């Protein structure tokens, strides 16, 4: 909503031109529950006369129905749009509002205060230039104040307003205000903020929001609106090295090939030399194409299409950069990860990682520590729960171009996506590439997988037997291997119990350990397939995501999933090792089928119903599948 101006009536074109050239400030309000964030934004809109008459009428009606001010106008309702928010009197989702004054345009995000909505707050902070952190003068600095301040710092916001709200509830006491400011500054000095401006105010009464308050004669600083209008946020994106993540390769006909995207940093002109990452190829810009015609200069924030003088291979997800200052390229990183999903993060579990316009497969290889956002202390951890933050090492399945997040938010930020549900489960900030990634390279070998398998008269593959404990996986796998041996084939069996005597003897049966158990076996299976063997893997492997990881490690057609489908009641009746009985008695924790889930395959290459066939019949069934797939002939 635009600020009312006489120019609107007198000269609308001049007004629009002036409005277009105003600077834009993106800021967030955050703090603990019921600190008055929504009320403050409502007050800014209300006192700046930025509310239409019909909005005001609706606000008055809503205030009488669901307001918290005894029938008076409840300004928080201007922002708290969700029904659940109005019923509970809290902010749940991130609410964005646009408004402007004579001096500046604003986009404000009202972020939730509840700890359970930390992920929402992080989302709102990801694009902000300044944070208004509210503190209730009656309560002082709380844990959630510290939590939000840490996240604000983590996401690269360097300008903070400490808004000590509800001063009217403490008699506008100067001592209260100064004590809160001193406590906050003592905590915040470790967070790297460039400046902290403290303002005593009352969002409910309007003190020091848009006009100085007579209630605080001891305060000589700016009002909140004055500060927001005057603060200089360094706009240095245009002065940074050029970056354009390619979003789309525009090829309408054989005579035009352009690379479209939004410039993330820097400037570009026709004739400039650019480098394409991760390939490293170079060319020069021929044209900068836009809907309104070609440009002689394009800057950060503009969406453009570049054409190059040379025909080089460029795809969506590549990054065009200035030739003499390119971004880094790596497939292993250290990063900070904010976990945003109810299903916790487990090292080794595969996810999709979206960085810029590129999407790759990725996993956390090592969770270095979890951050206690209230004390900033580091704690050892093996997983991240919802809203937790940790520093981790991660690995991608191919090199990606990046900048450290502190240098460029656009090319240094990423999200994790669940492969099955497509839910966004985490968001992260890259610190740096791991040095080991630069020093470890694939060694070219003359003897390859195909020649090794051909020497053995077969085609290598993995037979991955999965099912409940007691389903008959190992029995069937053993019979299959004996049959293959009789046929003169070269095999090896990796059995769940046997592997835990050596390679995986350090792992227990927690969910995190089971994920790592399968990850290691999948990597060993890949090496054995490379050796030309037919590998039989007999593991419960209860989670689809880890079986999918194993499949994706192999080439097409090399991973054959065999679902040994035995009902829980039947497997428990067999109970050859007495494990179900112990699990029922509570002697074994995290036992699949009892207190830990089994996720059956959705698209297995072969399903064996052990209630309808014997183990010998099942083994012949598997041999037939291998023959049909051409695995038994070199």
Tally of individual domains: 4
Distance, first to last CA: 71 Å
Based on the coordinates given, report the CATH architecture of the largest domain.
Answer: 3-Layer(aba) Sandwich
CATH topology of the largest domain: Rossmann fold
Protein structure class:
alpha/beta
Helix content: 25-40%
Proportion in β-strands? 25-35%
Which regions have little confidence, pLDDT < 50, spanning 5+ residues?
80-93
The total count of strands amounts to: 27
Description:
It is a single chain. The chain is α/β, with parallel strands linked by helices and 634 residues long. It has four domains: 7-230, 3-Layer(aba) Sandwich (Rossmann fold), CATH 3.40.50.300; 237-322, Translation factors (Elongation Factor Tu (Ef-tu), domain 3); 330-437, Elongation Factor Tu (Ef-tu), domain 3, CATH 2.40.30; 449-628, P-loop containing nucleotide triphosphate hydrolases (Rossmann fold), CATH 3.40.50. 28% of the residues lie in helices and 28% in strands. The chain has 19 helices and 27 strands. It has a seven-stranded antiparallel β-sheet, with no helix packed on it. The chain has a six-stranded mixed β-sheet with strand order 2-3-1-4-5-6, sandwiched between helices. β5, α8 and β6 form a beta-alpha-beta unit. α13 (473-486) crosses α19 (615-628) and α15 packs parallel to α16. The protein is flat and about 95 Å long. The model is unreliable at 80-93 (pLDDT under 50).
